[in-house]
Fold:
Amino acid sequence: QVQLVESGGGLVQTGGSLRLSCAASGRTFSSYAMGWFRQAPGKGREFVAAISRFGSSINYADSAKGRFTISRDNTKNTVYLQMDSLQPEDTAIYYCAARQGFVVVDNRYDYWGQGTQVTVSS
Structure:
């Protein structure tokens, strides 16, 4: 079992940056592939980025490529999402997720955080 707590969301202007963090409980963080997802108002939850257990494999949604960077620090049980050049369409609740084993780019994750709101003003 792992518990996930996101932080770092907020209000930012178009073109600005935010760094989201997701802190995981437990002593086996490196056993989990980690993902970031988001859900905009009135839309379904969508994949943003994912990183394998030791960071050797990273995947991004097309909407995130070139603007977002996922990383992790297994010594701190934390995964990050650096978001640059933010646009109003990036406005959403951002969730981190964890699954044991290999990384996937769909919602086949076992554990989810409560989410953090990101709002990009135009």
Q: What stands out?
A: The chain has a mean pLDDT of 96. The longest strand covers residues 92-100. DSSP finds no helices and eleven strands in the chain. The CA atoms of residues 33 and 103 lie 5 Å apart.
